Amino acid sequence: MSDLAALLDGTTPWVVAELSGNHDGSLDRALATIDAIAATGAQSVKFQTYRAESMTLDSDAPPFRIREGHELWGGRGLFDLYRQAGTPYEWHEQLFAHARGRGLVPFSSPFDGTALELLESLDCGIYKIASAELVDLPLIRAAASTGKPLVLSTGMATLAEVEAALSAARGAGSGELVLLSCTAAYPADPAGSHLANIAVLRQAFGVPVGISDHTPGIGVPVAAVALGAVAVEKHVTLDRSGGVDAAFSLLPEELSALVRECTAARAATASGPRFGVRPGEEDTARLRRSLWVVEDVRPGDVVGPHNVRALRPGGGLAPAHWDDVVGRPFARPVGRGQPLAWDVLGAPGTDRPDRADRADTAP
User: Fold this and answer.
1) Residues contacting 193, CB < 8 A, separation 6+
2) Mind listing the pLDDT tens digit for each residue in 150-182?
3) Domain range spanning residue 300?
4) Is residue 355's pLDDT more than 80?
């Protein structure tokens, strides 16, 4: 069984903690973040494997700069940003070993052939294709040719581009495929999450679908799981004051809450519709109202609100029978606190005995 098949066992959502640039240039911080992730219940930690030189040119020309006014990285040169955020190749072996030692499944996003070569040497069991690389079909084919499972993020992609990426992966011999619905904005607005895409992607391509989320908090991932997402990817940091991705990343305690609430969302939606008394409702079902005799009655007394009321618990006739029993005489004595049952009542229309008869039959 592949790593991915084990992670998508259907009982809990697959929660992926993305380290990205939140190591903030420190290997010790990266290792401590892995330790924190392992304590949350997340199953995987994901890295990004690239060098700045493999991502862009070292140029200050306008095309190689992020637009002024961007909330996080306005005006920064791409080369400098990727140099700061990148995870050094020489860290990878230790990071993978540390993650595995903590019970996590590590994997990464390769961004070129050298990255893929490094990750293969580390026996990386899953490859992630980032949203911006979904249109890089040669990269997808190279990753797929390993036969490993691929997770493809779909931010910015048209359905035609998603179809082309999946076709490239399948044609190159990939293992299992998973799509992630994604809004490639940093940070992202929850209103722009378009979670309806989850069902569209699943129906259109017949593969499991999760979410890669860059919104603040955990509300969007929980909603996504309730709508059928099988996986959730979120950036994680030890401290929001540092790191290029820290502002939209979760703290470890928030990741713990995400794992807990997404697991609850999966459990709440895993079964089909069911009405009537369900498992766990038995005790409360015994407290449903029923008709009870509330004062001692003798034969011939007539059922009315003075001697029969709908009260908790169950045990007597259902309150829905009130119109059937009101005005009917009691056929025998019944003590206060006894449930009203058919066998204590006379037939409808039975004449009420006179007082002498009642005295003869009173207990």
Assistant:
1) 181, 183, 211, 213, 215, 220, 224
2) 999 999 999 999 999 999 999 999 999 999 999
3) 282-361
4) no
